[in-house]
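User: I've been going back and forth on whether these two constructs are worth ordering. Before I decide, could you fold them both?

Assistant: Sure. I'll take them in the order you sent them. The first construct and its structure tokens:
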Amino acid sequence: MKLAEAEDHMQKAVESTQRSFNTIRTGRANASLLDRVMVDYYGSPTPIKSLASISTPDASTINIQAFDRKTINLIEKAISLSDVGLTPSNDGATIRLNIPQLTSDRRLELVRLAAKFSEEGKVSIRNIRRDAVEAIRKQEKSSELSKDEARDLQDKMQKLTDKYIAKIDEVLAAKEKDIKTV
């Protein structure tokens, strides 16, 4: 595994962590809250945005307009069973989700959830580092690299790992600030 390849994988891990953070509710309506919710549509899990248009008419409401009216009950059921923590209101044509103001306890729960997503991203980055270091050691054993070259590459890999873990920490700090802002 080359350094550039490892760096690309680490960047993707940071982006994935950012997408996970976007699914955490911060007290404002945001269509990305429903990104992880899957609807059982004809036996296969389907994202809501494939079955409906999602809009946010104001800061505390999400409207879901199903493309096919027959799926509206399936969408409502999927939201109810998900971990989003919102109760859907179905009027037969659209589903409305009212976003209540967060309590201080709920904010702390969401901060913990963000920390969990952050740790998953860090573990992913560490796994990328481990795989790259193993590849470097194999190259050293097969005499493709000298000990000094292998040590230099491992040091560069560690610096790269530290850089991307710091990026995840920055994204986490921003998300925590967003969650804690009333």
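The second construct, handled the same way:
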Amino acid sequence: MSGPRIPPLSAGQLEAEHADLHERINSDATGARNVITTLLRHPLLFRLWMPLSGGLLYGSLLPHRDRELLILRTASNCHADYEWAHHVVIGKQAGLTDEEIERVPNGPIDESWSSEDAVLLTAADELHHDSRISDKTWAALAARYDEKQLIELPILVGQYHMVAFALNSFGVEIEPGF
């Protein structure tokens, strides 16, 4: 894509149309300004989406490293460069190493993964390809996570699929520095 299909709002538009969110946007710790200012072109949808998105990112019941491994695999599966760029940074903050991040696109077949990490990557792949987690993978996850975490896991992967579909389609550009 040569540029955004739906450009982010300019600073002037943002202040005029969304003054109530201006401070929040400028203080966003993820640096995902272009996502926010693009989605704000549909304010109602943005306000409905933010609680889920923020809740899964900042209030996740899954261990943060596991959450980021799932998100990065989803970004890889969806060829979501924007999502990948931002979650590499967040993944490192959550404890993923550079070497682990480099192996994410290889998926669970890379023999360097622990069995716990491989099952997370497998779950993300099954959701991507089959729209469900297999019985074998579910059993491995259920041995590790409680019911609430098991509910959250496919919703997390689905949320990041939705974001990838939107950002890829809109042509949201990665901010400098990512």
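Notes on the second construct follow. Residues 11-58 form one domain. Residues 30 and 86 are 7 Å apart (CA to CA).
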